[in-house]
Design brief:
The complex is a heterodimer. Chain A has 1 helix and no strands. By secondary structure, chain A is an all-alpha fold. Chain A has one domain. The longest helix of chain B is centred in the C-terminal third of the chain and has 37 residues. Classes of the chains: A mainly alpha, B mainly alpha.
Chain lengths: ~40, ~240
């Protein structure tokens, strides 16, 4: 049994979930800060 | 510490820190993972699967460190009533839950070729699964409390009670000697050979920076949302 599919699978899960977390956190921060800028201009 | 309880002062430091932590985190995590995949030898017993170590150990550390952060924020909130404590607790939970999930999934993938099973109700695995569910409970409780306009005291108490699980996870490999191996990396040294171990500090620091960056982003996001809500309330009067 080749062990590489397990290694690749584990790394893919770690990279995808970490990238997902950072992208979600960045997106929600940018949206909220843009809303502050928007409301400050009014 | 009290100086950082002021959101304006906190944001002055958090804004540049977010970008730096993100950049350093990405660079170190990619370097560490690339080194772990290509520059280290396979283990004499586990073969190539030992490379899962470089992502599994940092995610286990961050899953536990996240709850330690929630417990510290809970104490700050209950004792000193820091204005940022509840926000910090809520911001830490999704990052902690993500890394607890990564730890569980990568551990399961590692277990299949090593132990011959995807899952076993072993002390370490079960207590880590409990931690993941504690995170889900905390996220639900803290967001429900925030929506009702509460101060987050119930979530803070839950955060402190949940910290009981941290020593259980740590000592589980000593208390219940089942499938999961004992401690191989301690404060005083490691039983892993240096030829395999050296990329681990890179991924440990790299993923920790990414974790911290994600938490800071969430704190900044929550502070901005609070500002918008306050302005909307004032405008509607």
């Amino acid at each position: 049994m080749s062990q590489w599919p397990f290694v690749v699978g584990a790394y893919s899960v770690a990279i995808l979930l970490t990238a997902g977390l950072v992208t979600w956190a960045y997106g929600s921060m940018r949206r909220a800060e843009a809303a502050v800028d928007e409301i400050s201009r009014k | 510490m009290h100086a950082f309880a002021n959101p304006t002062r906190f944001l002055r430091i958090a804004k540049p820190a977010t970008s730096w932590l993100l950049l350093v985190g990405v660079a170190l995590a990619i370097t560490g993972m690339a080194a772990g995949l290509s520059l280290t030898p396979p283990d004499y017993l586990q073969g190539e699967t030992v490379r899962i170590l470089y992502i599994h150990v940092p995610s286990a550390w961050l899953g536990m460190a996240g709850w330690l952060g929630i417990a510290a924020a809970s104490i700050s909130q209950l004792v000193w009533r820091h204005p940022l404590a509840a926000v910090a607790g809520r911001a830490t939970a999704p990052a902690g839950a993500t890394f607890a999930a990564i730890c569980l999934i990568t551990g399961s993938i590692w277990g299949r070729p090593t132990w011959g099973t995807w899952w076993e109700w072993d002390g370490r695995l079960t207590s880590m699964l409990v931690l993941f569910f504690l995170y889900l409970g905390y996220i639900a409780l803290a967001s429900a409390e925030r929506e009702r306009g509460g101060e987050g005291r119930i979530a803070a108490i839950y955060g402190l009670v949940g910290a009981i699980n941290l020593p259980i996870i740590h000592y589980s490999v000593l208390w219940w000697r089942t499938l999961h191996q004992g401690e191989s990396i301690g404060l005083t040294g490691s039983s892993i050979d240096n030829s395999i171990l050296w990329p681990l500090p890179l991924t440990m620091i790299g993923f920790t920076c990414l974790f911290a960056s994600a938490v800071l982003m969430r704190i900044r996001g929550e502070l901005a949302e609070t500002k918008v809500e306050a302005r909307m309330r004032r405008m509607s009067r």
